[in-house]
User: What shape does this take?
Amino acid sequence: EPEVTQTPSHQVTQMGQEVILRCVPISNHLYFYWYRQILGQKVEFLVSFYNNEISEKSEIFDDQFSVERPDGSNFTLKIRSTKLEDSAMYFCASSEALGGANVLTFGAGSRLTVL
Amino acid sequence: AQSVTQLGSHVSVSEGALVLLRCNYSSSVPPYLFWYVQYPNQGLQLLLKYTSAATLVKGINGFEAEFKKSETSFHLTKPSAHMSDAAEYFCAYRRGFQKLVFGTGTRLLVSP
Assistant: This one.
């Protein structure tokens, strides 16, 4: 079954460092997403991406965050200068189409620990 | 704000007992509703979804959920719990083309 793959599975970084989390969405999917889950809290939407543009972003997704599809297969989330509160599990997801009953397929997540 | 509410952060059942995980939505228009499961150290996996085609929705691993408009609920059930069902369960909600919004999650604990 097609799956979304994420790397790294776990990254530890120092506060202020830049981090790039990588995702390979399902190949025929057109919409891409990042969500995050701070330990013990709910899964929160960060951003959605379509046709090389951000289609929606949350208030969490400030100027420290950026997303990119650098080639035909990868979708990345960059955090420019990490803060302690960025420590979380970051989930990438993709879907064939937008909205309605379309299902998001999630990756296994990348756990980011900021020290 | 439109959302879903999951009652109970933890639910404990014995193996073989009925599983009932509660989810209520707040919306003036019936939304699209989903249940996802997260096994330890894994990502989110779709269990089932409500699309208005049928109020009783069957999903994977023996789970099902019933959409009740009068109660604004979409509770997840399974007749007989198995040890392997121990996981965190998330109800999620979407209106139209808006983003998928998750509830706070319910951790299911299954004891022998």
Observations:
- The interface with chain A takes residues 32, 34, 36, 41-46, 49, 51, 90, 94, 96-105 of chain B (CB under 8 Å).
- The mean pLDDT of chain B is 91.
- Residues 51 and 95 of chain B are 11 Å apart (CA to CA).
- The first strand of chain B starts at residue 3 and ends at 5.
